[in-house]
């Protein structure tokens, strides 16, 4: 096989669909260290001595043998090499595959590394897409854009083919060469939702899940069909690639790269690099969209499960605050349940972790706790049953929890704790102490060798005192120990308890404002009515 003099670093191999070598160029001999006579009739994977290359190589050959050109990076070396596979029909209709191996362009690996680093540093799909196009323009292309299926961004977890072959996508990011007309920024705005008709390069890319290469005429016609007018300079972009964004076995959208007249058109090495760039973009956008969906689901779940209102029985006043973290959704929860005889039960807990799992565990434990206290079980028994429930959740989930039953007539309380921070009692004389609670293991931790034990203790709320329940987000910090955090909470209670109970709650939150945002915070205050 004669080697293309215009591509001095290129190696070409002619193969049967099962990977047997039938042709071997001089470039292949230099690249792989085998002469053509030794290579002919041998499986390419055997020549390479790389078992890991067999499966992806056969996938590429199968696609080409079926009539679909394939390009990508295959493990034909330690770093991987850009490869293009194109179908060929020989004498008698015999199908063969032309495999072209091109060394990456100078800086190609650095471009991939930078794209992965920058796009992988964010969980915002717009920023991830923006980082990809910022890396590629102008070093790799004169223009670049990332489009994602609108239904994916609208929280449809199973995006599929659009109606009648059209493509409904949202432009997440775009970057243009400095010398392109300024009005292009107005014609290609970020967040625009576009419907590309069947037969357009973009719709074909989505439908087939394959890279589509086209020229300036197709780009001009596509833009003219969308805007209703011709844009100056569009036809100067003579080499364009629409590259599918594929992650977890599905196509999420596509990236577009274009080069203008005067710059070499995309070659096999460029197409392989574009495929790798699109792969990085797809992974980052997929992760960002999955995080966005999970965060939205967890936030909605938690908002629906937290009590919207807490009613205090005669003889008690209750104030409560819930402050969500800036990112992620934790498992903080609390519940105030009226009981027969004017009593109330207070349950507060924290499902460890963040996201949907923690929020779902919180919801199940909260509902179970509500049911158990309404059935009249004492606090120690409530926690023992909650511990059994926590161990049976689909995902292993640990949680802390504290349960208290109070009689407003006597201010007598029965309490039990499962690893939860003990409540604080702020007395009218300005002192603060722990409200006596015997500690037990957190929910879901016990096993046969370490059985759960949640001792129940009794205590009385003194008149005029304020009883504070809280979760660890109010006292834990990287800047101080938990003991220091509890001491700060005690000082905030003392400094704020001269006003109404609502003013006390606001004062505590304000004095500990540096705790906000890092984790969910729950605060619930109880104070007996004054004389």
Poorly predicted regions are 1-8, 156-162
Share of helical residues: 25-40%
The biggest sheet, with number of strands, parallel, antiparallel or mixed sense and barrel status, is:
6 strands, antiparallel
Helical region count?
A: 15
Describe the SSE topology.
Elements (H helix, E strand, L loop, with lengths): L10 E5 L5 E4 L1 H7 L3 H4 L4 H5 L5 H12 L4 E5 L6 E9 L5 E7 L6 H12 L5 H12 L6 E7 H4 L13 E10 L7 H4 L5 E4 L4 H8 L3 E3 L1 H12 L9 E11 L2 E11 L7 H38 L10 E8 L7 E8 L5 E8 L4 H19 L4 H14 L6 E9 L4 E7 L5 E3 L5 E3 L22 E4 L5 E5 L11 H15 L4 H11 L9 E8 L3
Antiparallel strand pairs: 1-2, 1-5, 3-4, 4-5, 6-7, 6-11, 7-8, 9-10, 10-11, 12-21, 13-14, 14-15, 15-16, 16-19, 17-18, 17-20, 20-21
Helix pairs in contact: 5-6, 5-11, 6-11, 11-12, 12-13, 14-15
Can you walk me through this structure?
It is built from 15 helices and 21 strands. It has 531 residues and is α+β, with helices and mostly antiparallel strands. A hairpin with a 5-residue loop joins strand 13 and strand 14 (344-351). Helix 5 packs antiparallel against helix 6 (125-136) and helix 12 packs antiparallel against helix 13 (379-392). The longest helix has 38 residues, at 268-305. It is elongated and about 100 Å long. Mean pLDDT is 82; it is low at 1-8 and 156-162.
Compact description:
The chain is an alpha+beta fold. Helices cover 33% and strands 26% of the residues.
Keywords:
single chain, 531 residues, alpha+beta, 15 helices, elongated
């Amino acid at each position: 096989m004669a080697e293309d003099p215009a591509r001095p670093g290129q190696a070409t191999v002619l193969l049967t669909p099962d990977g047997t070598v039938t042709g071997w160029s001089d470039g292949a001999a230099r690249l792989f260290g085998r002469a053509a006579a030794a290579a002919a009739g041998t499986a390419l994977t055997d020549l390479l001595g790389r078992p890991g290359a067999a499966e992806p190589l056969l996938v590429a050959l199968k696609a080409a043998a079926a009539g679909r050109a394939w390009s990508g990076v295959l493990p034909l070396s330690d770093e991987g090499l850009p490869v293009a596979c194109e179908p060929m029909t020989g004498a008698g209709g015999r199908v063969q595959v032309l495999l072209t191996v091109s060394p990456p362009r100078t800086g190609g690996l650095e471009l991939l590394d930078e794209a992965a680093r920058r796009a992988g540093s964010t969980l915002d799909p717009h920023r991830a897409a923006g980082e990809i196009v910022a890396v590629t323009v102008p070093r790799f292309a004169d223009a670049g854009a990332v489009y994602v299926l609108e239904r994916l961004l609208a929280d449809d977890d199973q995006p599929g083919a659009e109606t009648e072959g059209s493509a409904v996508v949202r432009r997440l990011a775009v970057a243009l060469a400095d010398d392109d007309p300024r009005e292009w920024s107005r014609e290609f705005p970020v967040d625009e939702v576009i419907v590309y008709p069947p037969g357009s390069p973009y719709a074909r890319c989505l439908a087939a899940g394959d890279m589509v290469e086209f020229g300036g005429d197709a780009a001009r016609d596509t833009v003219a069909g969308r805007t209703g007018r011709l844009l100056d300079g569009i036809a100067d972009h003579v080499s364009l690639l629409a590259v599918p964004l594929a992650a977890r076995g599905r196509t999420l959208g596509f990236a577009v790269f274009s080069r203008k007249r005067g710059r070499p058109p995309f070659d096999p090495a460029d197409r392989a690099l574009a495929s790798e760039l699109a792969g990085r973009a797809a992974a980052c956008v997929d992760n960002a969209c999955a995080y966005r969906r999970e965060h939205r689901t967890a936030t909605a779940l938690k908002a629906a499960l937290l009590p919207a209102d807490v009613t205090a029985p005669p003889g008690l006043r209750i104030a409560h605050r819930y402050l969500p973290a800036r990112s992620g959704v934790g498992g903080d929860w609390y519940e105030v349940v009226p009981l027969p005889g004017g009593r109330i039960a207070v349950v507060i807990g924290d499902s460890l972790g963040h996201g949907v799992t923690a929020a779902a565990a919180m919801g199940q434990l909260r509902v179970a706790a509500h049911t158990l206290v309404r059935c009249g079980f004492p606090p120690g028994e409530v926690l023992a049953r909650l511990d059994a429930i926590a161990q049976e959740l689909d995902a292993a989930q640990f949680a802390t929890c504290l349960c208290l039953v109070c009689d407003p007539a006597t201010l007598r309380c029965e309490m039990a704790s499962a690893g939860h921070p003990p409540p604080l009692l702020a007395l009218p004389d300005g002192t603060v102490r722990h409200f006596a609670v015997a500690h037990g293991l957190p929910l879901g931790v016990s096993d046969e060798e370490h059985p759960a034990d949640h001792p129940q203790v009794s205590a009385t709320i003194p008149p005029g005192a304020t009883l504070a329940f809280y979760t660890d987000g109010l006292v834990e910090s990287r800047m101080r120990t938990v003991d220091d955090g509890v001491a700060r909470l005690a000082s905030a209670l003392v400094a704020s308890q001269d006003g109404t109970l609502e003013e006390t709650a606001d004062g505590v939150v304000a004095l500990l404002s540096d705790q906000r945002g890092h984790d969910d915070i729950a605060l619930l205050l109880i104070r007996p009515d004054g004389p």
